[in-house]
Specification:
This protein is an alpha+beta fold. It is about 20% helix and about 25% strand.
Length: about 200
């Protein structure tokens, strides 16, 4: 993890410098359509049978006045997606069986494998947003040195990390089926349905 980012985040929270107002953050969201990606169970990564992964290219535009990571955190928080973190994406395939996740690309670019071992490789860059439904595999194959992601979760659910082992498979599949659609979209709020 970048050692500067936690210090910068703390300084932003204390001083407010670089942090947009809610109105400024929402003004950065572009009207765009999601690329919907559906993935089948590959025997290890179950993916999600009900909800597709949503990939928004250039969904957020950044200005020079505000920190891009703070803009994404503010947008997600306004729509009640919290527990935000700043980092990269793990370089091994994993998924969350009890909660959905949103990834906002604040800086740089990366090659992500979405949907597990038989999924799709996608190049993401600053301003892109990926909404990952519970059970959907994801990993980073390659990233630029400046790559920074802001992740967040809806209030419904509990964070966990699964890696596709046979021991966790049956309980994970049952858990994924219990995860409902969030009440708010992380980019657009209540006015737009998630899936």
């Amino acid at each position: 993890m970048d050692v500067i980012e936690p210090v910068k985040r703390l300084a932003e929270k204390v001083t407010g410098i670089g942090v947009p107002t809610p109105q400024e953050a929402l003004a950065c969201v572009r009207d765009c359509r999601a690329i919907r990606m559906e993935f089948r169970d590959d025997g290890y990564i179950p993916n999600n049978r009900e909800f597709p992964l949503l990939y928004y290219k250039k969904a957020v535009r950044f200005d020079r006045k505000h920190d891009p990571a703070a803009v994404l955190e503010q947008i997600f928080a306004i729509h009640n997606w919290g527990q935000a973190w700043r980092n990269g994406v793990y370089d091994f395939v994993h998924y969350h069986s009890m909660i959905h996740e949103v990834l906002g690309i604040a800086r740089g670019s990366a090659l992500l494998q979405l949907g597990g071992n038989r999924g799709k490789t996608v190049k993401v860059s600053a301003g892109d947003v990926v909404v990952i439904p519970a059970g959907t595999g994801h990993e980073c194959l390659k990233a630029s040195n400046s790559f920074l992601v802001v992740g967040a979760y809806p209030p419904e659910g509990k964070y966990n990390e699964c890696r596709g082992s046979l021991q966790e498979r049956e309980s994970s599949i049952a858990s994924i089926a219990r995860v409902k659609a969030p009440k708010q979209h992380p980019l657009c709020g209540v006015e737009q349905t998630m899936w």
